[in-house]
């Protein structure tokens, strides 16, 4: 179940759309938030803040500013080099999000399913991004490939959304 949640959360990083007036990632973020209890929301926010501060201290992120989230991907895409080594175990700290049974996961899974089946999604840059990543999945999808694809579809402003910032933290965690 932990792997499934990690895959879902990491997959959500792929859900950003440049230049959309109605943002699909806002809908997806609501799915995540609405699946949590009030206590879980508070705990998740604190873990998010702690991890972000840790990554800034380690020099992985320059600051908590949205442009620095974008430039993390840009640096990786341009240099083809990344080093996410850090001792903060983000996956373990958010493991409380893992639901013990499929029924408990149905809220978020059902919510995502509706979005992915929508016309809004099929007309989004997210859909184009997803198709591109799927085409590349026949080859090895590395952090560099993800970074290049991310900057193709996202702007600095996209990282003003907590949703995209959270998914960047998952990206770092998955490739450290």
Describe the model:
The protein is mostly helical. It has one domain (2-11, 21-174). It has 10 helices and no strands. Helix 8 (125-136) runs antiparallel to helix 9 (143-153). The chain is globular and about 40 Å long. Residues 3-9 and 12-21 have low confidence and may be disordered.
Write the topology of this structure:
Blueprint: H1 2-12, H2 24-34, H3 38-57, H4 66-79, H5 90-93, H6 102-116, H7 119-122, H8 125-136, H9 143-153, H10 162-174
Features:
disordered N terminus, globular
Please provide a brief summary of the model:
This protein has helices at residues 2-12, 24-34, 38-57, 66-79, 90-93, 102-116, 119-122, 125-136, 143-153, 162-174. It is mainly alpha-helical and 176 residues long. The protein has one domain.
Number of contiguous helices? 10
List how many beta strands DSSP finds. Answer: 0
Helix and strand pattern: HHHHHHHHHH
The biggest beta sheet reads: none
What fraction, in percent, of the residue positions are helical? Answer: 55-70%
Organism: Flagellimonas taeanensis
Protein name: Lipoprotein
């Amino acid at each position: 179940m932990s792997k499934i949640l990690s895959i879902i959360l990491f997959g959500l990083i792929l859900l950003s759309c440049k230049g959309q007036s109605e943002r699909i990632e806002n809908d997806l973020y609501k799915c995540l938030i609405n699946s949590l209890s009030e206590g879980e929301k508070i705990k998740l926010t604190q873990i998010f803040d702690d991890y972000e501060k840790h990554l800034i201290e380690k020099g992985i992120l320059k600051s908590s500013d949205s442009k620095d989230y974008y430039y993390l991907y840009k640096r990786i895409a341009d240099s083809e080099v990344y080093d996410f080594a850090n001792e903060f175990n983000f996956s373990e700290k958010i493991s409380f999000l893992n639901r013990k049974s499929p029924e408990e996961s149905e809220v978020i899974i059902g919510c995502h399913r509706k979005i992915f089946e929508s016309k809004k999604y099929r007309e989004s840059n997210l859909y184009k991004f997803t198709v591109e990543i799927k085409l590349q999945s026949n080859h090895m999808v590395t952090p560099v490939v993800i970074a290049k694809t991310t900057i193709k579809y996202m702007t600095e402003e996209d990282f003003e959304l907590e949703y995209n910032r959270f998914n960047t933290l998952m990206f770092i965690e998955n490739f450290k």
